[in-house]
Amino acid sequence: MIPKSALSKLTHIVGEKNILIKTEDLLPYSHDGTQHQFMPDVVAFPKDAGEISRILQLANRERFPVVPRGAGSGMSGGALAVRGGLVVAMDRFNRILLIDEDNLIAKVEPGVITGHLQEEVEKRGLFYPPDPASLDVSTIGGNVAECAGGLRAVKYGVTRDYVLALKVVLPTGEILTTGVQTAKGVVGYDLTRLMVGSEGTLAIITEITLRLIPKPAMKKTMLVVFPNILSAARCVSMIIKQKIVPTAIEFMDSLSVECVRDQLNLDLPKGDVTLLLIELDGDQVLIDRDVRKIEALCQKMGTVEFRLAKNKGEAEDLWKARRNLSPSLPQLRPHKISQDAVVPRSCLADFVTRLSDIGRKHDLHIPSFGHAGDGNIHVNIMFNRDDKYEVAKADKALKEILKLVIDLKGTISGEHGVGISKKPYIGMEIPQIGLELMSRIKSAFDPNGILNPGKIFDVNQRNSLLQ
Ligand SMILES: Cc1cc2nc3c(=O)[nH]c(=O)nc-3n(C[C@H](O)[C@H](O)[C@H](O)COP(=O)(O)OP(=O)(O)OC[C@H]3O[C@@H](n4cnc5c(N)ncnc54)[C@H](O)[C@@H]3O)c2cc1C
After folding, report:
1. Considering its fold, how many domains does the chain have in total?
2. DSSP 3-state assignment of 130?
3. Which domain holds residue 280?
4. CA of 283 to the centre of ligand 1 (A)
5. Do 236 and 378 lie in a common domain?
6. What confidence tens digit (pLDDT) does each residue in 361-383 have?
7. Is the same domain home to 127 and 242?
8. What's the whole-model pTM score?
9. Distance 73 CA to ligand 1 centre (A)
């Protein structure tokens, strides 16, 4: 709870118009892309780093939790106020401050919507590649805090590969700039990289300098239909082995295809089909060469249909269906446990086959889809929360899947982060000494544990709100 005395000070810092306290106003800030819900006590909309600094100093004095929040599309519960307290909504940090065509950088506030930044830089012939499927709603601040990936990560990498510098407010209220405005720089520890993916637990980001690249001349999208999951997975491995690097290789198993069959607006064969969506970008000659190579490989692997999108509109329809996939899944069962594990690309076929086995064994729908090109498969265990028997089965299946991922030398999260969803399993991947070191880093930044408590791991610290 936020003490009454602190509430009046908060109001004084941000102004009465920029604070929410009524239950009905707080409700939209009580959930995110997960199915969890936690009510904050207060939501505030600060306008600059100075106000955030004063808020964090107050939170340290009065000991209440502070949770930074972008668009609330996170898939691991990072923006949820699990200990109540204050949600700091970054909505007013919504300006693109600079697009510098000479130095190929952009400077943005964290509340800028990812897709909006992409449109603005593309108008100038530049390109910001990270493209989470949520790009129409997610913020750059949330992307940096989660180190978001996306469909184009196969070729272009993830958010961390584009963050050059940050301005942040530390949990104790100091304002810090990290990183460089130059193409390279190695002075001191890389605090920028430490912040990227820290899930709002080390600092509140208030300004971001991003690296841009020239926009590729053109792109082409292919849709490939396979009769089963195994041949599709093998085809992905073969494409990579042939040293072709598509911009994206997205995969949808047959359960996922069923969920968006109408939106795909295609005459797909009835029954079990697995789809690959493949995008290439670059110069026309190279694209045409790689399309031919990919088509030949797909034929060899037993495709039942290979289709090149005829125009931009047709390609966009395919990508739209892919982006709508996650919200379409509840038609299978009302609840889901979403995992975003990554396995080495060479293990993809093994992984998807064993996933189907786990689904059959527990009699559960486990649709899987996602970024097959980088081995990042979104696995969704569908169940009904009101059915205790199904909940128990889903829990068993989850543990088996995570163990399988670790056995295959994969990682339990490729892009969604740990938050609260994967917190119970972090020890499967990070050794105890690693967790202790992380705990000491957290304490060095946040001695009273006021910033985003309860996330990623438990901290061994006195005075912490985390436990
Ligand atoms: C349909 C759908 C598809 C998705 N597809 C992808 C995908 O392809 N790839 C992918 O990586 N993710 C994907 N996501 C997950 C999600 O969109 C990303 O994690 C995104 O980066 C979250 O951004 P946000 O603005 O919504 O952040 P929030 O959900 O609001 O917050 C996420 C985390 O960032 C922290 N945070 C937010 N702003 C700040 C700040 N200014 N300073 C410090 N910490 C901050 C929060 O405390 C929280 O821990 C998807 C989600 C949905 C719903």
Report:
1. 2
2. coil
3. 218-421
4. 32
5. yes
6. 999 999 999 889 899 999 999 99
7. no
8. 0.94
9. 5
